[in-house]
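Consider the following input, taken from an annotated entry for Molybdenum cofactor biosysynthesis protein (Novosphingobium barchaimii LL02).
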Amino acid sequence: MTSPIPILSLPILSLQCGKVVPFRAEHEPSAIAKRPVAGRVRVHRLGLEGDAQADLSVHGGPDKAIHHYPHDHYAFWRDAIGEHPLLADYGAFGENISTAGLTEEGVCIGDRWRLGSALVEVSQGRQPCWKLDHRFGGARVNAACIKSRRPGWYYRVIEEGVVGAGDTMELIDRPFPDWSVLRVFGLLIAGDHKSDRAGLEALGEVTALAEPWVRRRAKLLGAPG
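Applying the prediction step yields:
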């Protein structure tokens, strides 16, 4: 497996936060509608100050404190679903961090990035859900995220601090250079485990992998071939 060429630093284009509000129905709240915030934001153990998640059983928590989605992918989505109004700004996919020049192929599980004065660690890729389809007015975004392998990824917070748009993200450490988010997403979510059981077994060496994906790996290892 060829290791991604590391990008050592890049600027943050925008930071987004969101509040919990009714989504598809009153009894289905969500904070996916995140909007750019001005100024500097505190980074706490559970994410950006002022950000929220509705269902903490599947969103948020220490291993999914901050969501990063490449703004690079927006051009793909314009081609795929058309010029949707959400694609005219940052935060269309509920991401907290927007950058250009860094995608799933160039980010590895366990990467540690200096985010402003905070230190964060890549814990897992995002596992898309139905809320993306509803947010985009019924477009098949969820399935296309998986098929095109454009999920984005999550960070856990190692050191708290502050960050603002315009700050530089700097790669501090890469302990698992062979395990890009793209590769791990392929194995655990996009079906690559069916043809790469050796890879699925070797993934056990990645101690930085978030617990939900550790369980996902164990389940797939136990599945009949």
